[in-house]
Write a structure and sequence with these properties.
heterodimer, A: 148 residues, globular, B: 2 domains
């Protein structure tokens, strides 16, 4: 169980640690289905990003990156059998902080920075001073190709 | 070389005088041995010091390498297949590495830097543990302080990268002005780490 003031909504009953701690990938890579690459639109050419990187990354930068993976913005994070979903979080200054991916049972999976992967029941479970709040949900037709 | 002898050497380098330390006797004895070894020559009439560069001479003087071993390269049967120069060079590289490891903790400045590095890197790790933002990771005040040390920070960073991992890549790139990571490995942290450690080893920094 993770107890940290950055995640005031994480409680014993709403999340599980599901991986060892590692800094080899981050939440964006994990949301994109990778567990061996750190995605971030900056610090070029150190980290990976699928598109040219703007001077100041915004939420739109992240949305555009996931458009390349056939995701499109959608209304909410409710479970839809035919789709897989991701969610983008931003802080109070609208700076992107985190992404999570919905699992096939409707729960969500997040890579917490350079720490663990967790399963959390809802997107709101990891909102707080650490990752801010939900900004955009995106979805794409469910495909088996997702690697992890 | 013992820690006591190292400290005595350090005192000598700092003041150009032998201290009253008991290790003095050891050092004087070693110096007289060095003079003896200097007179050893190989079948071509070359002494050890004719096979070493100016840089290597500095290593010999400052490290106090094992002159018996060094001189043995002039006459060993192995020398029939390997030029004494190569054997001596290889030995000196190993001696320099060993010396760097041994001496780093005993210099007060280096020691305080190491302690400060440990404190800052620990703080940086704790504060950015849950951060996915590369910007947040590399703009942390502790990270920036370490980068502000300049080239002195490179061996400490590389050692930490090797032992504990961590996203030191931007700092290393900034301090060394190079990036040994293949563009196709951008973001592949394990490969990035391996590339930097290899670079550090090639430059005898780890």
């Amino acid at each position: 169980m993770i107890v940290n003031p950055k995640f005031p909504n994480l409680k014993k009953h709403n999340h599980l640690i599901t991986s060892p701690q590692t800094d080899e990938y981050n939440c964006i890579g994990w949301a994109a289905g990778e567990n061996d690459r750190f995605w971030w639109p900056g610090n070029h050419p150190i980290y990976y990003w699928p598109l040219p990187i703007p001077v100041t990354p915004t939420p739109q930068t992240f949305i555009e990156a996931f458009l390349t993976l056939n995701y499109v913005p959608c209304a909410d994070g409710s479970f839809e059998e035919a789709y897989e979903k991701v969610v983008l979080y931003v802080d109070s200054k609208k700076k992107p902080t985190h992404m999570a991916r919905q699992l096939r049972d409707g729960t969500w999976t997040s890579k917490l920075g350079q720490s663990f992967d967790i399963m959390h029941l809802t997107p709101a479970a990891i909102s707080g001073s650490g990752y801010g709040t939900v900004h955009t949900f995106m979805r794409r037709p469910f495909v088996e190709s997702i690697k992890v | 070389m013992s820690a006591l002898a190292q400290r005595t050497y350090q005192h000598y380098f700092d003041t150009n005088e032998w201290s009253n330390d008991p290790a003095d006797e050891f050092l004087r004895s070693e110096n007289s041995q060095m003079e003896e070894y200097e007179s050893s020559i190989d079948e071509f009439g070359h002494s050890v010091f004719e096979y070493v560069s100016e840089g290597d001479k500095e290593i010999i003087e400052h490290i106090g390498v094992d002159m018996a071993t060094l001189s043995s390269f002039l006459v060993t049967p192995v020398a029939l297949h390997h030029p004494p120069k190569n054997l001596i060079g290889t030995y000196l590289i190993a001696a320099k590495k060993s010396w760097q490891r041994l001496t780093a903790p005993i210099f007060p400045h280096a020691q305080s830097m190491e302690v400060r590095f440990a404190v800052l890197s620990d703080l940086w790790r704790k504060d950015t543990e849950f951060s996915s933002s590369a910007a947040d990771i590399v703009e942390h005040s502790a990270y920036l302080e370490i980068v502000s040390w300049g080239e002195q920070a490179i061996p400490l960073i590389l050692r930490d990268l090797e032992m504990n991992g961590g996203h030191w890549f931007q700092a290393l790139q900034e301090l060394t002005k190079i990036n040994p990571v293949s563009p196709s490995d951008a973001g592949r942290v394990r490969k990035m780490r391996e590339a930097w450690i290899k670079w550090g080893r090639d430059h005898m920094l780890v």
